[in-house]
Target: DNA primase
Amino acid sequence: MRARLNIADVVGEHVRLSPAGKGRLKGLCPFHKEKSPSFQVDTEQGYFYCFGCKAGGDVFSFVQRVENLSFGDALRQLADKAGVQVEAKYGERSSRDLYDVNAFALTYFREHLPGPALDYLRRRGLSDATTEAFELGYAPEGWDGLLKRARARNLTERQLLEAGLLIENPESGRVYDRFRGRVMFPIRDHLGRLVGFGGRVLDDSKPKYLNTPETEAFKKGELLYGLDKARGSLGGGSELIVVEGYMDVITMHQHGFTGAVASLGTALTAEHATLLERLGVTRLALMFDNDEAGRRATLTGLDQVIGSRFEVTAHTLAGGKDAADALLDLGPPAIEQALGTGLQEVEIRFQNAVAKYDPATPDGKRSILLELLPRMMVNESLDYTSSPALNLRRLVSQELDISEQRLREWLEGKAKRKSLSPTQLQGMSNSRGEEDRELALLRQLLVDPSLLAKLDGTTPWRNEAVRKVMLAAQGAQSPDDILEIFRGQPEEQLLIRLLFEGRDTGAISRDTNQLYEQRVGAYAAAAVDDIQAGLSIDSLRAEVDLLKQQLASAPPPEQLGYLKQIQELQRAIEAEKRARRASA
Model:
């Protein structure tokens, strides 16, 4: 059969191919996002290969991957194209048999729709055209209506049991219809194959909804109701709206929101993610009838695979309505308004981390970064610049006041096990506070180590890396001496970076390099005085802030003493400022 199939024709149904040499064609890979074609087809050998994601194989494996089929189903699909009859082996259970049995049941359910079930759907605002398009039906009351029809069509009980249409009593062995007295929603996979059903009662009896049980064709963790229709509008940068139930999906489609789908009573899974990514989905809008606390809980519990591959937002409708009721009562503007506002998954993820750790402390900031590390790693198969990982990186950089560029360098470093030393953390900082002044001082000392003699040894260093260097560098005569002390240690990279920055002529003077060399000594000495004065002022201010905190909780007899100390420190700050201005 392989000889009858042209792999280029089969692949060409999914990929736009262009010539790439003798017997070869190229195009954009259907298995990962890319801008430049790395996917090739060898028509002479009958194989495909992607140089980007390394996917490869023959025409059968291509169809299996691109349409998410078992080998048997791919074989049968290609056999149909080639006009070849495929015989099932003895004992083989074909998914196609289940599709055929489900199609038989759908005909039965459709026949029984007129009456109370159709009246119910009309009251819910569905047009007859929508009811027809979604093939809605009704399972009548009674224990064996479908079973009797099946026997008349020479279908066996075993076939209906395997399709989940019958239930067998384990004690008596009696079988009876699973769906009775319910509006029936046929469930198709993304390829449009009829894999099962969902049924809803017309009254308040329980359970309200009943689905086909797990079968070889019906795997609810891989299915999204309405995706067979929604995929027609998908493309690059496409958004799906995930709602709660069948009626929500159908009503949304009727009002023009054709990207609506629903999971089958499960959370979104990694299997969903793989399928949706392949179909070109990049954004997911979750629209559930809950409050903000519920939305936060939804995003917090979201599968990490979903969160890392898609931009996810959570939305709620006015009055806590579900989508179907909102459209019936308020019309499309209610949906549009809800879609215009929502909670971002990356923001909730960040807020949860900040609630656990104090971002004002180095340890807290480090813990936040390490917790969010997996979510900030870019999936190499995603080629769009608005990926969730990049959005989270921007948010973390902004809120934690760290350099986005240095954060990226840390995340994309070669080390398999990511650690975060105090030096690395300080290196990411954008802050212009006391620790920045300490680094500036260290930079000047690397320009001229002899300036170490100007320090009086009383400065309380806050930056751990600076403290270690200042302690170890006493007596050093050159930058090389200092670097040698920290060879192979975490501080080495920081020192090298500061050394290059300290020798950057553009950072000090616009004069020529020769003039820079002449002035660097005087400049560095003045810089040390200036920076050390700044550090002293910062230290005094920090002490004032601490005394003010103690003053607020001190008993009245002790408050006067605190006030005197604060006044003395404030005078010392003013004196430092005057001395600094006088020497300028």
The longest helix spans residues 513-553.
